[in-house]
Amino acid sequence: MRIFDPHIHMTSRTTDDYEAMYAAGVRALVEPSFWLGQPRTSPASFYDYFDSLLGWEPFRAAQHGIAHHCTLALNPKEANDPRCTPVLDELPRYLVKDGVVAVGEIGYDSMTPAEDAALAAQLQLAADHGLPALVHTPHRDKLAGLRRTLDVVGESALPPDRVLVDHLNETTVKEAKDSGCWLGFSVYPDTKMDEERMVAILRAYGPEKVLVNSAADWGRSDPLKTRKVGDLMRAEGFTEDEVDLVLWRNPVAFYGLSGRLELDLDADDTAATATHEGNSILRGAPAAAPAER
Amino acid sequence: MLTVTELRAAVEQRLDETGRAWLDGALTDAATSEPRPDAPGPARWELDFASAGRHVRTPATGRPVTADRPGPDGLGPVDLPDAARVLILHAARADAPTVARLYAHGTGAERRAVLRALPHLGLFAGADAVPLVEDALRTNDTRLVAAAVGPYAARHLSPHSWRQAVLKCLFTGVPLSAVADWERRARGDGELGRMLGDYARERTAAGRPVPGDLDRVLAMTRALPGAPRALTREES
C-alpha cells in the first residue's frame, strides 16, 4: 500500500515517526505551515519556519525515504495579530519556491474580519502563483464556518477544483462536495474523524476527490492513521484500486495542480506506479497556471 | 570541476527541447540584466533561479530518476537543477552581496547551488562569501555540508575552520571526494593530525568503526610540507 499523507506537521514529529511511516507505506507527504502552539510575535519567526519547511525538514524526510513538500501561508489564528500580518507582504517571495505545492493552510479560526482579509488575500496569492489552496474549516461553529469559507472561495479568482477543503466531517461533507472542491478528512485518535466514520463517509459519498490525512502535529494525534484507514477500507470491501485512489492518486492529482510535485521513489515503488499512471503523473499534471516565462 | 561551458553542455544534453528553451531564456535574461537598485521585487533571473527545479528536469522515461547514475562528466539527474542555478548565477555575474542575499532567502536546494557556484564567479578571489560557507558548515544537512567544502572553502577558510570542516565531513559521512584540494591543505598539518587521532580513539573506545577516509587524511597530515605528493590524483 503506497500512501501520500496530504496534511501532516512533521516539524512536531520525531525520527521514530518517519521510520514508522515509511514502514507503513508512506512515501510522500505535504506539510502545511500552521500555528506552532506558541504564538509568534514577529514576521521573522515565520520566515525561519518557512525556511525550515523548504530546507531542513525535506532533508530529514529524504533521509527516511519520504518525499516532502509544503504549503505556506499566514494561518488564520495568527492573522488576527497585527504584529504578524506583514507576513502577507513577504509571502510572494516564498510562493515561487520549488517545494511549495499550495497556499495553506488558510481558512477561519474565529471568523473575524482580520481572518476574512487574510483568507481573501491568500486565495488571490494562490491564483497569482498558479498554486492550489489548502483551506481548513474551523474547529468551532464548523458548518457556519464551511459556508462562509465556500462563499469566500466562490468570490475569489481561484476555481473550486483548485481548492482542498480540509477537516470535513459528516455535517459538512455534502455541502463541500456540492461546491466542487476537493474533500479533505483528518483522522484523529479523539477528535475530528475516526477510521470507522471515515469508511462510512467513503461508502456514502464515494472515493472521488477525497483525501485522507493524519494531520499529526504536537497534539494527541497518530501519523499512521492514513494506513489504518486503508486497512479498514480493504477489510470493509473496498478494492485495492479504491484505496490507492484515496491514499495516493487523489493527493498526487490535487498537489500536482501546482506542477511542482517531485516524487523520486525507489525502483520498486516507481515500477508499481508506472503500471497505474505512468511516470509523468509522479511529477504532477502540468498546471493550468499562468506561464512562468 | 567542470568549466561553465562544459557544465552547460552537460546540462543541455540531458534536457528535452522545452527544458533547453527554458534554460536558454533564463541565461539570456540573466546575462542582460542590469543592476536595478530602485526596482521593487526580485529581478526576472532571480525568479528563474528560484524556480529552476521545476523547469530543468530529465525528460520522463518511465524509469525511476534515482536509478540513473551520473554520466562520465559526473553530473547525475539529481544535479540538474543545481547545475542550472550555477549557470544562471554565472550568467548574471552575481557579486558577493547578491549571492549572500540569495543564500539567505534560499531553499536548501538554492543554498546548495549558491555554494557550488562560488568557484565559477568573479568573487572567487575574495573572502566575502566565507560567512555563507561557515553557515552551511554549521548545518546538519549533509548536502549543504558537501557543497560547502568545495574549491572556495579550500582557498579561503581559515586553518581552524577548515580542520573543523574536514572533521565534520568524516563525522557526518560526507565523502572525502567532496573536500576540494584536501591533499594540499592537509599536508603536514600536525593539528589536524591530532584532531583526527583523537576522533579515531573516541570511535574505537565506543566500539564504533573509524571512517575509512580518516586514515587517508591522517597519512597526509604526517607528510612533510612541500614534500612530493603522498598520493597521486588517481589514488585519491
TrEMBL record, chain A:
<keyword id="KW-0378">Hydrolase</keyword>
<dbReference type="InterPro" id="IPR001130">
    <property type="entry name" value="TatD-like"/>
</dbReference>
<dbReference type="InterPro" id="IPR032466">
    <property type="entry name" value="Metal_Hydrolase"/>
</dbReference>
<dbReference type="InterPro" id="IPR012022">
    <property type="entry name" value="UCP005295"/>
</dbReference>
<dbReference type="GO" id="GO:0046872">
    <property type="term" value="F:metal ion binding"/>
</dbReference>
<keyword id="KW-0479">Metal-binding</keyword>
<protein>
    <submittedName>
        <fullName>TatD family hydrolase</fullName>
    </submittedName>
</protein>
<dbReference type="GO" id="GO:0016788">
    <property type="term" value="F:hydrolase activity, acting on ester bonds"/>
</dbReference>
<comment type="similarity">
    <text>Belongs to the metallo-dependent hydrolases superfamily.</text>
</comment>
<dbReference type="Pfam" id="PF01026">
    <property type="entry name" value="TatD_DNase"/>
</dbReference>
Automatic annotation (TrEMBL), chain B:
<dbReference type="InterPro" id="IPR047715">
    <property type="entry name" value="EboA_dom"/>
</dbReference>
<protein>
    <recommendedName>
        <fullName>Sugar phosphate isomerase</fullName>
    </recommendedName>
</protein>
<feature type="region of interest" description="Disordered">
    <location>
        <begin position="56"/>
        <end position="75"/>
    </location>
</feature>
